[in-house]
Design a protein that fits this description.
alpha+beta, six-stranded antiparallel sheet, 4 helices, single chain, 34% helix
């Protein structure tokens, strides 16, 4: 997946917003809360951090091409960074991005979810 494909996929999820922050990262939010952040390096390698369930975190933290997300995971949050499709192919990665979006949206207040048109 390229940075452009990552951005297009996240843009297609419901009620998302995009900002570039934290040193040029493409940050995707739902209801003002981050669900994914990505950037590529000079070689075009895409690095994306995303929120996941505790079970998914346990499965992915040692998977090839994945690691606990720098900064976020060190603070006890269940975030994974994918830096290669070696252990997490693009189709599965899209599923995890959808789930990250769902997890973050579920943490919003009922009122905010209703305002965004998300299921309450």
């Amino acid at each position: 997946m390229t940075l452009a494909e990552y951005n297009a996929f996240c843009a297609a999820l419901p009620a998302t917003s995009h900002v570039v922050q934290w040193g040029g990262a493409d940050v995707w939010k739902v209801g003002g809360k981050v669900f994914a952040l990505g950037r590529d390096d000079a070689e075009g390698t895409l690095f994306v951090s995303f929120k996941c369930s505790p079970l998914a975190y346990e499965m992915l933290r040692d998977a090839p091409g994945c690691r606990p997300a720098p900064y976020l995971a060190s603070r006890g949050m269940k975030w994974i960074q994918r830096f290669s499709d070696e252990g997490l192919p693009d189709d599965a990665f899209r599923d995890y991005l959808r789930e990250s979006h769902r997890l973050v949206a579920a943490g919003l207040t009922r009122k905010v979810r209703a305002e965004l048109g998300l299921s309450v």
